[in-house]
Design goal:
The structure holds 2 protein chains of 2 kinds. By secondary structure, chain A is mostly helical. Chain A contains 15 helices and 3 strands. In chain B, about 20% of the residues are buried. Classes of the chains: A mainly alpha, B mainly alpha.
């Protein structure tokens, strides 16, 4: 096997059917994140916490908690050391993610040319009309939630938001760390450091505000996820969750299994039942289809509860 | 009877302190040692004029007679307006290095030419005279500090007069942080000079006063809108910088630049504060690289590699004032970041609020 083939295999986008896991021969799980993706997330959020703890006392220097927090980090010298080491790891994590995305793009260029948004689902595309449906749903102009795909609006916002954040806060962080390099050796204009400082400072509020309000609501303290969505650790979601939260992706996965691995349908009758259900609901109008899928998810949940009690 | 004895003892003790320590008070303390001695000024403010002779006896100017500096006072009782001190005068103290009468005249002349002194005569209530920043500080008592014992003993090997040694050592020790030794280790340092943040607060006591600064700008004849804004926002735009935050948040860390680090040439004379267009000014475009390089030893590369762009960046006074194209761009970016942050967070609050409501309704 050539090097190109090995590389292509390593970074090939997973086929839809590969996302379906059958646990103990009776339970369906959906794998959303690979181990590497989860590690990238752990690297990002753990350094983010440190950045907040060491950066916010500077941003809000005239509050009561700023001085005690700074002395806890060993004074300004300690605070700066932690902030810079943590920032370095965070930026490396970002660069690794960029590299990972580029390698995936190269290894799947043939697929990208065929159907870019179909294969690169994290990229905002035509299916994001679902966000309009979502707003309508929130305002009571639509009965059911949208027909979400694998990545819902907030997944995309979080992913690309970190990208923007790393530009606004990461690169400016380097500029503030090494001002002589950027304005002295690279001859960037004197305004550079001033802009870097303003952006770094405001982006810190934006990042924490977004994470605390939206991301944490979606994955931690929202009524559906409290105390937390364990997917960041396990990488997998339950079938019921997937049907309710990402119905379009669920249907595609089930159909892909049926079309590409039909022997599984013979082996697992419950899989065949799912396939038939998917074929049935797809004939219905969109809103009715979502409603039926939610009902089906509830039915599965009840069945699971009965089985547990029995 | 008891009260009389107590009162008499107190009076003897008070009189005796001044005489005992040899204060050359020219008789001024006869009145000024009275606690509560006050005057009411033109603006009906009560001003305390009492002096603690015990404290004066341990101060920097302990050996200087009152009338040597308050040299307009020629009669008793004197007029309050004559009480002003003249720091350029020569006193009876002999400078040991030149054997000439001691004077602060050289520093006074620098101040007189500086932004603080050149228009002083026009508005003495507005501009800071020497005594606004310099108080008659107390000397440290070297005999009570273990860390000074070795120096004390060493001096006494040659100099016989222990009082004289104590006096000289106190003078020198009062300019440097003094280690306090406990159980054989340096436990802490006694701060003898203003730290960086205290200097910022001292400068801010006038520069943060908008009314005062507006008047000063009128006297200076500065009418340009942007130039006035630079002066009026100087303190608040410094306080948001890293320099300021470092000094404020960690008083033990003195690496960051305070006002004097940049606005004086730091050649031992901290009074040469000139307008930035003055070639003598430390922030003049010709000198700014050197100032960044030497002020706190933080940016030595700036003068070595002639980093003009680095030295002229506005990170020492952060607020963009749109007097140039560069600053206009910064202002636009500042506005953009503000609205981006505000808009995004408002969107976040709205969407989370609506989603939560929907979820709660759905559950019930």
């Amino acid at each position: 096997m050539g090097l190109w083939e090995a590389f292509k295999r390593r970074f090939r986008i997973r086929a839809e059917q590969d996302k379906l896991l059958i646990v103990d021969g009776e339970k369906i799980m959906i794998q959303k994140f690979t181990l590497f993706q989860r590690l990238l997330h752990v690297g990002m959020f753990s350094t983010f916490i440190w950045q907040i703890l060491t950066g916010y006392p500077l941003k809000f220097y005239n509050t009561e908690w700023a001085k005690p927090l700074i002395s806890l980090w060993g004074g300004i010298a300690g605070e700066m050391t932690i902030h810079r080491i943590s920032g370095f790891i965070m930026f490396s994590d970002f660069l690794l993610t960029v590299l990972y995305c580029i390698l995936i793009l190269i290894a799947n260029w043939d697929l990208a040319k065929k159907d870019f948004f179909g294969y690169f689902k994290i990229v905002p595309g035509p299916t994001d009309v679902t966000f309009v449906h979502y707003v309508k749903y929130l305002l009571g102009l639509r009965k059911v939630p949208p027909d979400w795909d694998e990545y819902i609006w907030v997944d995309k916002f979080d992913f690309w938001g970190v990208g923007w954040g790393m530009f606004a806060i990461g690169i400016t962080g380097w500029m503030l760390w090494l001002p002589e390099l950027f304005t002295g050796y690279l001859h960037m204009p004197p305004e550079t450091i001033q802009i870097a400082y303003l952006m770094h400072s405001d982006e810190a509020v934006l990042a924490l505000g977004w994470i605390a309000l939206v991301h944490m609501y979606i994955v931690h303290y929202g009524p559906n996820k409290f105390p937390m969505d364990w997917i960041w650790l396990t990488g997998t979601a339950s079938e019921v969750e997937w049907i309710e939260e990402r119905p379009r992706s669920y249907r595609r996965i089930i159909k892909a299994v049926a079309e590409n691995e039909p022997h599984l349908l013979e082996k697992y009758p419950f899989l065949k039942e799912r396939y038939q259900f998917v074929l049935e609901v797809e004939k219905l109008p969109e809103e009715e289809m979502i409603e039926k899928m939610h009902e089906y998810a509830h039915h599965l949940l009840e069945k699971e509860a009965e089985g547990r009690n029995g | 009877m008891k009260a009389f004895i107590l009162g008499l003892t107190g009076a003897i003790a008070i009189t005796g302190t001044a005489l005992g320590v040899g204060i050359t008070d020219d008789g001024c303390l006869k009145c000024h040692r009275l606690k509560g001695l006050s005057i009411v000024d033109k603006e009906n403010r009560v001003k305390d004029c009492s002096i603690s002779d015990a404290l004066f006896a341990h101060s920097i100017h302990r050996n200087v007679g009152c009338s040597e500096c308050h040299n307009k006072i020629e009669q008793y009782p004197h007029k309050p307006e004559n009480a002003k001190v003249n720091c350029a005068t020569k006193c009876h103290v002999v400078d040991p290095s030149t054997k000439k009468p001691f004077s602060h005249e050289k520093i006074y002349e620098t101040w007189k030419e500086s932004v603080h002194g050149k228009n002083y005569e026009k508005a003495p209530d507005l501009y800071p005279y020497c005594s606004y920043c310099h108080t008659n500080d107390l000397l440290v008592d070297v005999t009570k500090l273990e860390s000074m014992k070795m120096s004390f003993d060493r001096c006494s090997l040659c100099h016989e007069n222990r009082e004289w040694i104590r006096d000289r050592l106190s003078h020198v020790a009062s300019r440097e942080p003094i280690p306090v030794i406990k159980n054989g280790f340096t436990h802490q340092f006694i701060k003898t000079r203003r730290d960086g943040w205290e200097i910022v607060e001292l400068c801010a006591s006038c520069h943060e006063d908008e009314k005062k600064m507006e008047k000063a700008l009128d006297i200076e004849g500065i009418h340009d809108k942007f130039e006035r804004e630079h002066v009026l926002t100087a303190v608040e735009s410094y306080k948001v910088t890293m320099h300021s935050k470092m000094l404020y948040l960690d008083r033990n860390d003195t690496r960051a630049a305070d006002c004097l680090d940049c606005h004086t040439n730091k050649d031992g004379n901290f009074h040469d504060i000139f307008h930035k267009d003055d070639p003598r000014s430390s922030i003049n475009v010709k000198n700014i690289e050197l100032t960044c390089g030497r002020s706190t030893e933080c940016h030595p590369l700036a003068p070595q590699k002639h980093m003009k762009n680095f030295a002229t960046t506005k990170w020492v006074h952060m607020h963009p004032i749109p007097d140039s194209l560069g600053q206009k761009i910064v202002k636009i970016i500042e506005e953009f970041m503000f609205w981006l942050t505000t808009g995004t967070l408002l969107f976040a609050v709205t969407i989370v609020g609506l989603d939560l409501l929907k979820n709660l309704r759905r559950k019930h």
